[in-house]
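Input chain follows. Return structure tokens only.
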Amino acid sequence: MIVVMKPNQGEDVIQKVVKKLQNNGYRIYESRGVNNVLIAAVGGDDKYDYIKQALESIDGVERVIPIFAPYKLASREFRKEDTVIRVGDLSIGGKQLQIMAGPCAVESREQLLEIATLVRDSGVRILRGGAYKPRTSPYAFHGLEEKGLEYLAEAREKTGLYIVTEVMDPRKVELVAQYADILQIGARNMQNFPLLMEVAKYNKPVLLKRGLSATIEEWIMAAEYIMSQGNHQVILCERGIRSFESIYTRNLLDLSVVPILKELTHLPVIVDPSHGTGKWRLVAPMARAAIAAGADGLMIEVHHHPEEAVCDGPQCLKPRVFKELLKEVEKIASVMGRTGD
């Protein structure tokens, strides 16, 4: 349920409501505006009717609203305003449009620094790159691991870019969090619940990719796992889902999910057309469509020599194509009322 307090209530009144809820087995999450306070209470559903009457008798409580969606903290019912997540001097959500760009995998120090320089000089502020790579085959390249993290840290130091990189193992979260500005949960780990709860312990934004076969509700519930542990800095990333097509696209990029998520949740939504299509020729048109659909940003794979990439070369953009795409995206963003970073 959500307890809506009357405007400009004192802390003593707010804490009276909080204590009443906690004494009846509810977990409490607060959303504070300039003049208004919303208190989300999770659990204790068998006591709803009783507690609703008790709360509404407290002077200072405006109304009590049930949350019917299975996800509570991620719902629009809990928070009407869009959540804007801060990464240094950047914001993800709101009016700003953010691009995350870089190689699928960190292959070497030289490769990463070359691409990081390209990304910075193109005006993009966030560098993506995988130090740990979950792969279908156990014989494929699985990343440079901690050495890759060190290269990412060096790239940040030299270029000023922020870093987003994937963490796969709950035991590695502390290590990756020392290097990353944004912790990425990949599609294969969307429902790795111990991992979701572990990343929630760190005061870092979490980019949560949609699972290969996940429904929208399953995806939002995965975000709810993170938020229920106290970290509300969740960014949802559509990266394509599995379909019956296997020749012309790698995945089915579900752009309809962008306005759906905007209606159901208050969380930022970005789109990854690189993994979503698997074909570099499709990346630009789907990136343009994603911004037109209302996405808050894009994740794009870039490589100087895609034919030599250790993974996902066919979906990587060469520098010239990447720069052309950024110009196109800027025009569409302007039409949509968005600003650059």
